[in-house]
Amino acid sequence: MFLTRNVVSMIKSAGTRLIPAIVILIMLFTGCTKQAKIAEKNVSKYGGTLLLSTTSDPKSFNEIIAKETSTGDAIGFLFEGLTRTNGVTTEVKPCLAEEWSVSNAGLVWTFFLRKDVQWFDGKPLTADDVLFTYNDIIYNKDIPASARDIFTIEGKQIKFEKIDDYTVKLTLPKSFAPLLRQLSQAILPKHILEEAVKAGKFNSTWGVDTLPSKIIGTGPFMLTEFKPGERLTYAKNPIYWQKDKEGKQLPYIDKIVKFVVEKDDVQLVQFESKEIDVLSIREKDFAYLKKKEQTGNYTTYDCGPSFGTNFISFNQNPNTVKQPKLNWFRDKSFRKAVAHIIDKQTIINNVMKGIGYSQDAAMEKAAVIFHNPFVTRYEYDLNKAKKILVDNGYKDTDEDGIIEDKNGNPIKFTMITNADNTVRQNIGAIIAADLKKIGMDVSFTPMEFNSMVTKLTSTHDWDAVLIGLTGGIDPHGGKNVWTSDGHLHLWNPKPTDTKQQKVWEKYLTPWETEMDTIFDKGASELDEAKRKALYWRWQEIAAEELPVIYTVNGAALYAVRNRFGNLQPTAYGGVFHNIEQLYIQ
């Protein structure tokens, strides 16, 4: 999982989750209420420029150490994994591995790589690149790779071995249900990055100051230009391995320009003025844009509930949060009171114009099978919130309108969110106003997205945050968030410093330890019903303990100009899951 700038993404990144294809086909493919109808003509599909937008510069071009979507969105067209997930059916398909076999009761997997894949610089992709990516980077303890959480099974690593230049053998310590889907993890070039890894400089490699020509992948597009605060430009990969059904070279589109447009309102204006081709629509703008489809020559798509979340979390890090705040934020009754002031229906009605979904469980409704609809719900009730606080010693003893804890400390803290997301800003304003109604002195502060990510994942100097995470089909994709040692265990991350670890261990809770066990067992359990039971239990714990307090889930809404062929937007795949097959009419 990654921290998200927006609820809905048009580009899907590597980590994904499992659900039967027939369910997804019904839910996602037919869920988009309108499908573009573009007449086939006897003209070339090749050429043209796709114009897109993004709300911030990338934080890095190094996806391995990224914990946010600004990096993934910037390089999503550049890299590929051994497998890929079909954006419509969600079936796992071959990618850099053209086929595979399995033996020894599912513990030994053999992957046969394509022999026609070249890196952007013309070097062939081989088994050495696969082993380098996993053994030297992902499993390298000096590299803060979130993917290491995903590919560690009950504390043990998967053994990657080279059979020959185009054959890789994986030996699993235990059965691993999410394996094929998780192998969409991007493969990186050994001949480009090996020196940086050996020198201990990988973590600072491929920063935003890197020349685009130095970022080498195998994907359908290459980054050719990055002008901070202005745009990212991509050119088609002329030696890309994929071909269409007629055996012709892909991709069809020649060029992609992604403009950096920090404000959602400005993106809307640019879409209407035809400066960009695609818009991820805010719920409040959907009816307005739908009315203008014909005159604007575009199509709107409602693909149903999105994969992704919006939630509040309090910083429970004992190494960075000072008293008395640490006591407040680690007090479950305090968090439960806050849960009761989330007016989800008002948020859906006013902010999302009726197009939204109340979220209570850690798995989104779009995940269907793994979504637990029976978790504890917290109805909007300010009086109940006040009673919980009073019963636990939070009272306005000096009658100044601000409640104090048992030691007389006024409840005062800052809640941050990303300034480029007006939906979150509006949600946060509603929540902050209700927090003040129950006597909490809250400063709601939107800030630049990448600066916020630094606070959340590096300096850890924050009180409360309104943020979201990418979603998916299989819960295992969230292991880096929910296990106690996960690299994105947001509310109480495990420190690397030995002295700080001892402090952290004192504050580790039994319910976090139970989650660790659930994610270990869930990964190795092959029986779908048993996996479901495990992950439903995890969601029950999350809803009871409230390390994150969910708000609302948005819809996957898009507007796309009527000039593209092979377009199949879905809630899971977004608009560009088949970017190499899209063409401009």
Average the pLDDT over all residues and give the rounded result. 92
Termini distance? 35 Å
Give the biggest sheet. Answer: 6 strands, mixed
- Classify the helix fraction into a percent range: 25-40%
Task: Give start-end ranges of low-pLDDT stretches.
Answer: 13-31, 35-41
**How many β-strand stretches?**
25
What gyration radius follows from the Cα positions, in whole Å? 24 Å
The coarse silhouette is globular
Structural class: alpha+beta
| Tally of helical segments | 19
Descriptive notes:
This protein has 585 residues and is of the alpha+beta class. Helix content is 29%, strand content 19%. The protein contains 19 helices and 25 strands. The strands form eight sheets. Strands 1, 16, 18, 19, 20 and 21 form a six-stranded mixed beta sheet that branches. Strand 5 and strand 6 form a beta hairpin. The longest helix is centred in the C-terminal third of the chain and has 18 residues, at 528-545. The protein is globular. The protein starts with a strand and ends with a strand.
Concise description?
The protein has 19 helices and 25 strands.
Q: Which terms would index this structure?
A:
single chain; alpha+beta; 6-stranded mixed β-sheet; 19 helices; 29% helix
Topology at a glance:
Blueprint: E1 3-4, H1 21-29, E2 49-54, H2 69-75, E3 83-85, E4 92-94, E5 97-103, E6 108-113, H3 127-138, H4 147-150, E7 152-153, E8 156-157, E9 159-164, E10 167-171, H5 179-182, H6 190-198, E11 221-227, E12 231-236, E13 255-260, H7 264-272, E14 278-280, H8 286-291, H9 293-296, E15 298-305, E16 311-314, H10 325-329, H11 332-339, H12 344-351, E17 357-358, H13 382-391, E18 412-418, H14 422-437, E19 441-447, H15 449-459, E20 464-469, H16 479-482, H17 498-507, H18 510-524, H19 528-545, E21 548-550, E22 552-553, E23 555-561, E24 564-565, E25 583-584
Parallel strand pairs: 2-13, 18-19, 18-20
Antiparallel strand pairs: 1-20, 3-4, 5-6, 6-10, 7-8, 9-10, 11-12, 12-13, 14-23, 15-23, 16-20, 16-21, 17-22, 24-25
